[in-house]
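Protocol step 4 of 5: obtain the predicted structure for the target chain.
Materials: sequence only (see below). No template structures provided, no constraints applied. The aim of this step is simply to have a reference model before the mutagenesis design in step 5. Sequence pasted as it appears in the construct record:
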Amino acid sequence: MEPPKGLDYGFTTLKFGKGQTLSFTPTIAGGAITQFSVDPALPAGIDLNTISAAIETTDPTVMVPDSSFHTVKAINASGEFSTRILLQVTDAPPIGLS
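Step 4 output (structure tokens):
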């Protein structure tokens, strides 16, 4: 089995507006992934989908404005690949992505 070689959300900063429903699904390169993880845990109202590695809102009503760095890891029997993202939750929906 080939190890994971890439995990790309298309942006280094993922922006969520409080109350907004969003999902960011990465492009994954390399071998089949058996597990995804994130460290530290994502803030309230946002989760990592452990099947697709999408970072998505689960309950936008409990989101609190904040910014934090997170490392998302793709793992299989041959190795792992990780990427670091900045997650921002704002009081209003974002105007643009960076």
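Step 4 remarks: The chain has a mean pLDDT of 91. DSSP finds no helices and nine strands in the chain.
Proceed to step 5.
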